[in-house]
Design brief:
Elements lengths: L1 E4 L3 H8 L4 E8 L2 E6 L29 E6 L2 E6 L7 E6 L1 H14 L6 H9 E6 L25 E5 L3 E6 L2 H10 L4 E2 L2 H31 L4 H5 L2 H7 L7 H5 L11 E3 L2 E3 L1
Parallel strand pairs: 2-6, 6-7, 7-8
Antiparallel strand pairs: 1-9, 1-10, 2-3, 4-5, 4-12, 8-9, 11-12
Length: about 270
């Protein structure tokens, strides 16, 4: 394991942004979302989840993949190429990283979505473990550990004054080697503290999930009761049908295909 003192994080971000687009959790108007890093931006590593899932970096809301044109009564099709440049996602929570594995099963299966594949290959994911899960978290209910995710390229843990850094993939090891003296070796005491906090975080969330289950059961409710609760009748009447919930969900992979034409040419 490696580590970096938090006071050196701006130097780390500046280094990472030299050869790649660096996305970090940015706080603006009391709202946290992932955005491009630049000097002076307010990076927030405390908020557990961004409002918009970082899924958007791999599965954007819209994209063009085909250009068509009619000329001399002949239809010409021009598939667009995926010219994806290298980017780094810094500070994604383990649950959001787990969401990407769901998308992988869909878009990397045959027939493979080459746009999604190119972004997965170009992207490097640095996950940040959770030391204090929120009351509404439910990672352990899905056999996920809130403080660790092996599907990221580098796993980070917050130890107040420093971040402990552990590469987990080939991309992660290559990035670690490129950072040189920005990272130092983590001692045994720090490694033990990480393991201690990992266990404590999972235990806290498991206890919170168990408490929620007990509250439901003690109230005489079943999942079917909750599914058919009148609350949903009130909620759906406020729905505008905009579909933004689909876009915000970190695991939803719904999409539609539309042709937009003007005159004799257009895009799909």
């Amino acid at each position: 394991m490696k580590k970096i003192l938090k006071k050196y994080l701006p130097l780390l971000w500046e280094f990472l942004s030299r050869d790649a687009s660096l996305y970090v959790p940015v706080e603006e108007d009391e709202v946290v979302n992932f955005a491009l890093w630049h000097k002076g931006v307010c990076v927030n590593l405390e908020t557990l989840n961004s409002v918009v899932s970082p899924k958007q970096l791999f599965f954007p809301q819209t994209e063009n993949y085909l250009r068509f044109k009619t000329e001399n009564n002949r239809l010409n099709l021009e598939p667009l190429t995926a010219d994806q440049k290298k980017f780094i996602l810094f500070g994604a929570r383990p649950c959001d990283v787990s969401g990407l594995t769901v998308l992988d099963k869909v878009f990397l299966a045959e027939p493979c979505d080459f746009f999604y594949k190119s972004r997965r290959e170009a992207g490097i994911v640095l996950s940040l473990g959770c030391s204090e899960p929120a009351e509404t978290c439910f990672c352990t209910s899905f056999a996920l550990e809130p403080a660790f995710n092996p599907n990221s390229d580098v796993a980070l843990w917050d130890l107040e004054e420093s971040l402990v850094w552990k590469p987990l993939s080939e991309k992660g090891f290559n990035l670690t080697g490129a950072l040189g003296n920005l990272l130092t070796e983590a001692g045994q005491a720090e490694e033990k503290e990480v393991e201690k906090r990992r266990a404590a975080s999972a235990e806290k969330e498991t206890a919170a999930s168990r408490a929620r289950s007990l509250n439901i059961n003690s109230g005489g409710y079943s999942l079917n009761d909750l599914f058919n609760d009148s609350f949903w009748d009130k909620l759906f009447r406020r729905c505008l049908g905009c579909g933004i919930c689909t876009y915000l969900c970190p695991t939803c992979h719904c999409f539609d295909v539309q042709d937009y034409s003007r005159g004799q040419e257009g895009m799909r």
